[in-house]
Structures are given as C-alpha cells and as structure tokens.
Amino acid sequence: MVSTVAWVAQGFVALVMTLAGMAKLMVPRAQLARRMHWAATWARGRIKLLGLAEVAGAVGLIVPMATGIAPVLTPMAAVCVAVLMAETQGHRLPCRDPQDHSGQRDAADEDRDYLYPNHRPTALKGSG
Question: Is the residue at 121 inside a domain?
Fold first, then answer.
C-alpha cells in the first residue's frame, strides 16, 4: 500500500515537472513571461537550464527505481528537486519589503522593482 502511494506521488510529481520543464524548454521567453512574470527578468539560457533541470529531476524520480539500476539515485533526485524548487522560489516571489534586510538589495528586490515599478512598501498596522 505504501509503495503504491509512493509510486503514484512520484509519478504525479514527475509528470508535473516534465510538463513545466518542457514548457520552459520549448515556449519562447516572451510567451512564458505572460504567465510566469519572473521569466521577463531571466535570461533565455537560464530559463532553458531550469527547464532542463526540471526534466532531469523528473527522470531521476522515476527511472532509477523503476529499472533497478542504481535505485539510490531516486531519493537523491528527490532531494535535488526539493532544493531546486526551494531555490527558485526566492526568484519567483519578489514580495519582500526592501527594509526587511538592513537596506541590502538582492535579486528578489530587483525582480520586484522590475515587475512593480510603482510599488512603495507600506507600514504594517500597529508598527508605529
């Protein structure tokens, strides 16, 4: 039962990652930017590399365990996929207040400024 649930979950994640990765590999950047606003600020090669990493991660989630050849690679691929997704979230969700980190700016701040040029941080209620 647990094995079946694990395979279904792996298959679902692999399918979603394959579709997302193939979209990044095949769809032009301008068209991607209409739905994935972060793509407007990324170089075309960087988007293609992310798509390739997603497809490779999807393959790594299924193939090693299914073939029995180096099945230890499947959990390693799962960890790599989790790290990849966690890392890219910082670039996809540019919503931090620039004052949150002592005036230092990073890529998320630049993304936010590009996507929302008229954005002005507002004070939280009760903060003074």
Answer: no
Give me the number of domains the chain comprises. Answer: 1
Alpha carbon 98 to its chain centroid, in Å, reads 22
Q: Is residue 17 part of a domain?
A: yes
- Single out the residue of 51, 59, 105 nearest to residue 78, CA to CA: 59
pTM above 0.70, yes or no: no
Parent domain of 34: 2-97+105-115
Among the listed residues 45, 54, 60, 56, the one whose alpha carbon sits nearest the alpha carbon of residue 23: 54
Which pLDDT tens digit goes with each residue over 52-70? 999 999 999 999 988 989 8
CB 56 within 8 A of CB 80: no
